[in-house]
Design brief:
Blueprint: E1 5-8, E2 14-17, H1 44-67, H2 75-80, E3 84-88, H3 95-107, E4 113-117, H4 125-141, E5 146-151, H5 162-169, E6 176-181, H6 182-188, H7 207-212, H8 219-234, H9 236-258
Parallel strand pairs: 3-4
Antiparallel strand pairs: 1-2, 4-6, 5-6
Helix pairs in contact: 1-9, 5-8
Length: 273
Amino acid sequence: MCGPAVATDFLGRAALKWNLATLPRVHSGDVTSSSADHAPAISGAAAEALEREAIRLYGRYEIEVIEAYTLCPWAERSRREGHTRQLVLLGAPVLETALAAIDVLARDSSVEVGFLLFPTCTLPRVAFERFVSGLRGEDQQRGAVFAAAAFHPDAQPDTSDPYRLVPFIRRSPDPTVQLIRRSVLESVRRPGDGGTGYIDPASITDLVAFFQNPPKPPLHERVAQANLEQVTRVGTQPIEEILRDIEEDRARAYAAVLGADHPAVHPPWRTSP
């Protein structure tokens, strides 16, 4: 298997790009087939151009949405310090291909946050989340270096609950797997963040002090609550306007590379004409 070539990320730094022809591919029932699976193969100059556009578009989303509205506690620092990398995977999501891409990122000790971008994937959100769940399970069985999360363009804002808002915040230009190195998560967690928060009442000797200073909720709950408060404060409309602009940018850029009739240009979730 040959090594990674060098592409350019959205800030002009070196970004890892893997030659997908060298990665193992399997066809299984883990992923529902999408219309893009039957589209002509993308290679050569078109593949290079699509990879550049996918990384550029994700950069817009990260800087104009996630960082601009402070929706991730480590996104900007990791990016500015050069600890993020993107890999672009063309074609339908395949577990073995994604696992091999994760291995590429894991071997680069500078990577704190990695992203697997799937610009030609047209799986609906539920199906893509099912793929990522399977990917997470397979990776955990071999001692996962990263914590994986699914991002997908098909999501509407729901501010009724912190966790109902999560898909909207993760509304990336393309189906994406975010990978955060577990050692980084551990470094920002407080003691006790990893569990369910159960406390044996018999162990509490000072009830007044306990209720005056209750245990802090775990990290993921604090982030979700902070994001809900931030989005409620600024409103969903300005964020939606940026996301729609990125969506339209994506459609123009991908049409120029793939042709206007390619399924990836008009995925089923696309809201703009």
